[in-house]
Design brief:
25% strand; five-stranded parallel beta sheet; 466 residues; FAD/NAD(P)-binding domain; 32% helix; Enolase-like, domain 1; globular; alpha/beta; seven-stranded mixed beta sheet; 14 helices
């Protein structure tokens, strides 16, 4: 057979899987439906959104914080086309980086729709060339996910947008309505709020960011309101109509009652994502899926059909790029006869708003539901010297530890640079650390990470700076 492994999809899970397999001596091919590599994450997700988040945070700081630090720059002027060019250049650099890595590792790439065509066969269909069938020993499906749709609301990427359209607006909307208070909605809402939009977020549930620690989310909700983002919980958008003056969204209470109308120039639908399995020929091949359309796999990522594996957003678990990457490495090592493994108990999750939210491990709600006796240590950034001088005092660090063993069960951070600080907690948990281990680890002063040490000290009620 010409290939040892064919990976369908070149997002974070797919391209990392292909590279690791090539490192292990396999002959690898990648099939990608788009003209560029990197999937949703690099092209219209993680990377472009972080570029705009970073740029708009600097814009906001120049307008509101520089003066307090004795820096006079005047009112910042927005050049949106230049900002979008900055974002596009970041995307292009990352996409080209994947292409370079494929060449470096001698991975062959085929552009077109990949489809299972029988045992050890992948058919590649392209609009520019004749269909071809590739043969291989193993197949990994890593096709990612797509935007979840809201019945009755059609996305046109002009006025009613998915996250893709919200990353490419040609002008700042005066009024932006966001359906969904999840990670995508809050991140993109913060981008356009900083640039001048009036942002309203409508959420069906009674809280923002479902699945994350509720105490963290309650405090961040208050911070968002202070920043000027309005959040309407326990509400649902039942329809969106258009007129010459803009869009009119009908918003009704979840519990029932008379709907209200919210006027908007742009509506962003951000209610989640769905596994992308269209056109793969799963049912014809005998590959089983669950009731959510996700591919069913065992602990080795093997599907119901021998020789076919799946990773990333198309299988159960959090739809996170780094989770897919770890699965890509693991399945490649398993195929090479090694002991590939993913520790799903230690997968960080980050919301790149300002301040950031980061978590790893279990929440208080999950521990209570599981009947686990635990201790809590919290430390506010208001009491951290570096946070004070940086004018970044919002938020806190919370560490949850087993009441008997002191083993760290979860860490939750609301604060500036939380996405980087959570790595310390993840490493500690990977090694089975106790809160005492973190508390007795010397942390550099003055740094934001001292708040992590103080939270660990607070587990045993001996925080030093509070």
């Amino acid at each position: 057979m010409p290939y040892d492994l064919i990976v369908i999809g070149s997002g974070p899970g797919g391209y990392i899987c292909a590279i690791r397999a090539a490192q292990l001596g396999m002959k690898v091919a990648v099939v990608e439906k788009d003209q560029t590599f990197g999937g949703t994450c690099l092209n219209v997700g993680c990377i472009p959104s972080k570029a705009l988040l970073h740029a708009t945070e600097r814009y906001d700081e120049a307008g509101h914080l520089f003066g307090r630090m004795g820096i006079g720059v005047g009112k910042p002027k927005l050049d949106l086309p230049a900002m979008m060019k900055f974002k596009d250049e970041a995307v292009e650099a990352n996409v080209k980086g994947v292409s370079f890595l494929f060449k470096k590792n001698k991975i062959e790439a085929f552009h077109g729709m990949g489809r299972l065509a029988g045992p050890g066969k992948v058919e590649v269909n392209s609009s520019t060339r004749k269909a071809q069938t590739l043969e291989t020993k193993a197949i990994v499906i890593a096709t990612g996910s797509y935007v979840a749709l809201l019945p009755g609301i059609d996305i046109d990427e002009k006025r009613i947008l998915s996250s893709t359209g919200a990353l490419a607006l040609e002008k700042v909307p005066q009024r932006l309505l966001i359906i969904g208070a999840g990670v995508i909605g809050l991140e993109l809402g913060s981008v356009w709020r900083r640039l001048g939009s009036e942002v309203v977020v409508v959420e069906f549930l009674d809280r923002i960011l479902p699945g994350m620690d509720n105490e963290v989310c309650r405090q961040f909700h208050r911070i968002m309101e202070k920043q000027g983002i309005t959040v309407r919980l326990s509400s649902q958008v039942t329809g969106v109509s258009s007129s010459a003056s803009g869009l009119q969204a009908s918003v009704a209470p979840r519990a029932g009652g008379s709907p209200a109308t919210i006027e908007a120039d742009v509506v962003l639908v951000a209610i989640g994502r769905m596994p992308y399995t269209e056109g793969l020929g799963l049912s014809e091949a005998g590959v089983k899926t669950d009731n959510k359309g996700r591919i069913t796999v065992d602990s080795n990522f093997a599907t119901s059909v021998p020789g076919i594996y799946a990773i990333g957003d198309v299988i159960a678990g959090p739809m996170l790029a780094h989770k897919a990457e770890d699965e890509g490495v693991a399945v490649s090592e398993i195929l090479a006869g090694q002991a590939g493994h993913v520790n799903y108990a230690v997968i960080p999750n980050v919301v790149y708003t300002s301040p950031e939210i980061a978590s790893v491990g279990q929440t208080e709600e999950e521990l209570k539901q599981g009947g686990i006796d635990y201790k809590v240590g919290k430390f506010p950034f208001m009491a951290n010297s570096r946070a004070r001088v940086n004018l970044e005092t919002d938020g806190f660090v919370k560490i949850l530890a087993d009441a008997k063993t002191d083993r760290v069960l979860g860490v939750h951070i609301l604060g500036a640079d939380a996405g980087n600080m959570i790595a310390e907690a993840a490493v500690a948990m990977e090694f089975g650390a106790a809160s005492e281990d973190i508390a007795r680890t010397c942390h550099a002063h003055p740094t934001l990470t001292e708040a992590v040490k103080e939270a660990a000290l607070a587990v045993s009620k001996r925080a030093l700076n509070m």
